[in-house]
Design brief:
mainly alpha, 3 domains, Serine Threonine Protein Phosphatase 5, Tetratricopeptide repeat
């Protein structure tokens, strides 16, 4: 009977010791995950040597190796693998370390994982693969290694092939490699888009040329009947649209709504309505501004303005500003290409013309705003003078606003060049 207390205390000691060891191990594992996350290779090695689990995971099921891969710590990833980390372990969403490294664009880590036996065709729960993300991020060496190891080159992630992802992002070197290795240039996603459509929609001219040279169908249509030319035109990508036309794209092809590339590009309800609304709002505010100033002056000095002069002084600057803006918006692209077929290209680019035309846009907008303010001040300040002095002073104000607008236009050109 006397031995019972002794056995009881021995058991209690053993249990408490086990609990303490478990707590220590938990703390060590958490520290190892954090060290891997932060890229501290020496600390990670020390923790593993002291018994930390090399496959330890955080509360979201993300193992230490995955954190090292996700943050691009190749030295830590290599250490963990050497110490026995599972290269194909997944987190709660089904992502592997290779998918994470490819997603974040860390080519060195991805190549290390592939060399160490990572599953190249592993898919996350939402269908993501390493090849998709390597193609998306332009990791040409990783893509090459994945293909050499047997990755399915025409597999679809989110309904797109690797070639489509590379084309959407403009990675010509990756696209070229994929095509050389057998990627289908005319494969379609669930929305009916091909790689050429993605390249055209993104304005990637060199990539579009490559795809065309490799046999991409020029006039293929997606589910809404849009062709690569229509997508390029809608996006204002004139170089791509011109290339497609030169290669023989059908400028008269129609979508499901019966619209051609040019008609799609113009998009009256989308492209022009905002300009019309801008003008209406500008007119209303400027009228309110001028009238309020006129009333204020009349109350103070009993001023009797010449209303013909007021109306002309308000309309002329606005007309000049809108003329500058509209020339850039509708006419300049035709001059730039110098032929009627460029209408398909230029009519698309209500918002996308850059460099010189972008400068014209900014100049036109600035001049409209500045000149209306200037004309209001001219009317109030000089509106009761004779015509010739009034016109001279008003002209001075307008020339000043034009100079400011020209400066803004030059700035727009430099920013958009």
């Amino acid at each position: 009977m006397k031995k019972l207390p002794v056995l009881f205390f021995l058991s209690l000691f053993a249990v408490s010791h086990a609990i303490a060891d478990a707590a220590d191990n938990t703390a060590s594992n958490e520290t190892l995950v954090q060290a891997s996350k932060d890229g501290h290779a020496a600390a990670a090695k020390l923790l593993i040597d002291q018994g930390a689990d090399v496959n330890a995971k955080d509360e979201n099921g993300k193992p230490a190796l995955m954190w090292a891969s996700f943050n691009g710590h190749a030295d830590v990833a290599n250490l963990l693998i050497q110490k026995g980390a599972d290269v194909n372990a997944k987190n709660k969403a089904g992502y592997t370390s290779l998918i994470e490294a490819s997603l974040k664009g860390y080519a060195d880590v991805a190549k290390l994982l592939i060399d160490k036996g990572a599953d190249i065709n592993a898919r996350s729960d939402d269908g993501q693969t390493a090849l998709k993300w390597a193609s998306f991020n332009g990791l040409v060496d990783v893509v090459r290694q994945l293909i050499e190891k047997g990755a399915d080159i025409n597999a679809k992630d989110d309904s797109l092939t690797a070639l489509m992802w590379a084309s959407a992002q403009g990675h010509a070197d990756v696209a070229k490699l994929l095509i050389e290795k057998g990627a289908d240039v005319n494969a379609k996603g669930d929305d009916g888009r091909t790689a050429l459509m993605w390249a055209s929609d993104g304005g990637h001219e060199d990539l579009a040329r490559l795809l065309i040279d490799k046999g991409a169908a020029l006039d293929a249509k997606e589910i809404n009947g849009l062709t690569a030319l229509m997508l390029a035109s809608q996006g204002g990508h004139e170089g791509v649209a011109k290339l497609l036309i030169e290669k023989g794209a059908d400028v008269n092809a129609k979508d499901k709504n019966g619209k051609t590339a040019r008609e799609n590009a113009e998009q009256p309800t989308v492209k022009r309505s905002p300009h019309l609304m801008n003008r209406i709002v500008l007119i209303l505010f400027s009228v309110i501004f001028v009238v309020s100033l006129m009333i204020r002056r009349k109350r103070h000095i009993g001023w009797k303005p010449n209303y013909v002069r007021v109306i002309m002084g308000w309309l002329i600057p606005a007309a000049i500003g809108w003329a500058i803006y509209d020339v850039a918006l509708y006419v300049a692209p035709f001059i730039a290409f110098g032929n009627a077929r460029a209408g398909v290209i230029s009519s698309a680019n209500h918002a996308g013309i850059v460099s010189a035309f972008g400068g014209f846009f900014m100049m036109g907008r600035l001049y409209i705003a500045l000149s209306l303010a200037g004309c209001a001040l001219s009317i109030i300040r000089y509106g009761d003078q004779e015509w010739i002095p009034y016109m001279k002073k008003t002209a001075t104000v307008q020339l000043s606003t034009l100079a400011l607008a020209a400066g803004g236009g030059l700035l727009g050109y430099l920013l958009l060049k």
